[in-house]
Amino acid sequence: MAVRQPDPTPGPEPERGFILAVLAQGVDPDGELAELEELARTAGVEPVARLVQHRGAPDPRTYVGKGKLEELKQSYENARAEVLIVDDELSPSQQRLLENELQARVVDRAELILDIFAQHAITAEGKLQVELAQLEYNLPRMRGMWQHLERLGGGVGTRGPGESQLETDRRLARQRVSLLKNRLKDLGRQRDVRRKERRRTEIPTVALAGYTNVGKSTLLNALTDATVSVRDRLFETLDPTTRGFEHDGRRYLVTDTVGFVRRLPHQLVEGFAATLEETLVADLVLHVVDGSVAEDTLIEQIAAVNGVLHEIGADELPIELVINKADAVDGEHRRHLSNRYPDALQVSALTGAGIDELRVRISDRFAERFESVRLLLPYAQGAKLNELYALGAPIEQREDTSEGVLVVARLPRREIRRFAPYLINGA
Asked: Taking a C-beta distance cutoff of 8 angstroms, is the pair 85, 36 a contact?
């Protein structure tokens, strides 16, 4: 059983980050900004100070109001911060204004998450998806990189043939976006081939979906005896990882997918099609939640995941709620979870508690898709026996008789017609 361990790899000294947020009246900053602060730490930034303005909506020009902007400049300087992290997706003009006013780097929520993804991407496909998402995010923000050229205006040294440096960079970026999309389409076609092969063998597929850091990878390891990385980091899993397990002679495939967060940048919802598609094409989705968090947080996280599942069209699939980290929950809270979510299994991927029951639950979900049949396959029809094994059907009994091979197997209902001439005993 893989045990979740903190990341042992020593890293560089974290940057000093200043958190800035505009929240509605009455919203608790501690609860609302806890996730952003954890995202910052995952990106290598230690929050050292923060400033919150309560108002109905961010200022369209300066993000915070004019008076609050002056307070921000003084507070940022006093904190000796190195980067400003904003709990919203800024417009390009808002980001430029804040950078000019503070003379500092400004990173919004979307860019922060993109940076984390860039650090954690391992496979070639994951790296391509990160690069595509970053380019699409940065394209409308490229103007600020060449302000020194714009300030020159017309006159000596600024005239001549060709396009401006800014337009050159934009054109190259668009060409790169097009190239990346084509490469990802090719990789997508390869995934389709692998999926069709899995479906041809009729192996049921299960996708693990859930909020980031709820223990999906640890659950994958517990179900399948895999050794997927389970370091305690947000977005530890970016690329879909598929492993298998057997129960009562039947094989099942389980795929771990990227974790979700509130307000996941749309560039990532679109760009990370690989892992999200694995959710979309699964036969069953296990929505994994962390039972040890506060109830309000749990409700928000469930809503965030359901929102993404709806966005990609996966909410029409069969979904089972699985409450993980039951070992970190006291008895009273477990009873409360049972009352609120009576159909959800409570498990601990860390200790193994409830894992056998989860395998049974998965098996029961697919039970109606299979039927036990008795077949008598003549020796001259050896190809039919090979077809039977290729389906991955559990063989409950096999006996060589004088008339042929007697087989008792559990077949997918839609495949029984193929073997109708060989059915015996009115099966």
From this structure: yes
Strands 395-400 and 370-377 come out as: unpaired
* pLDDT score for 57: 92
CATH number at residue 303: 3.40.50.300
Mode of pairing for the β-strands spanning 319-324 and 405-412: unpaired
Specify whether 260 is located in the same domain as 386. Answer: no
H/E element holding 165? helix 165-200
For the chain of 427 residues, list the mean pLDDT of each consecutive stretch of 10. Answer: 48 87 90 88 92 93 93 95 93 92 92 83 77 84 52 43 66 86 81 63 82 88 76 56 83 83 69 63 90 90 87 82 93 92 94 94 81 86 82 79 87 78 73
How far is 246 from 395, CA to CA, in rounded Å? 13
Please tell me the distance from the alpha carbon of residue 326 to that of residue 312, in angstroms, as a whole number. 29
Say whether both 252 and 347 belong to one domain. yes
Q: The domain that contains 380 carries what CATH number?
A: 3.30.70.240
What's the chain's length in residues? 427
Whether the model pTM is above 0.70: no
Cβ atoms of 4 and 221 within 8 Å: the answer is no
Examine the domain organization and report whether 225 and 359 are in the same domain: yes
Q: Which helix (H) or strand (E) holds 127?
A: helix 124-138
Per the CB < 8 A criterion, the answer to whether 348 and 326 are in contact is: yes
Q: How far apart are the first and last CA of the chain?
A: 42
Identify the DSSP state of 14.
P
Torsion 358-360-361-362 (CA) sign:
positive
User: Domain end: 367, 385, 412, which one?
Assistant: 367
Question: How many CA atoms, within 13 angstroms, populate the side-chain half-sphere of residue 206?
Answer: 29
The H or E element that residue 55 is part of is none
What CA–CA distances, in Å, run from 423 to 180, 311, 367, 371, 426? 52, 45, 20, 12, 7
Take residue 59 and report the two structure tokens written for it: 């200022």
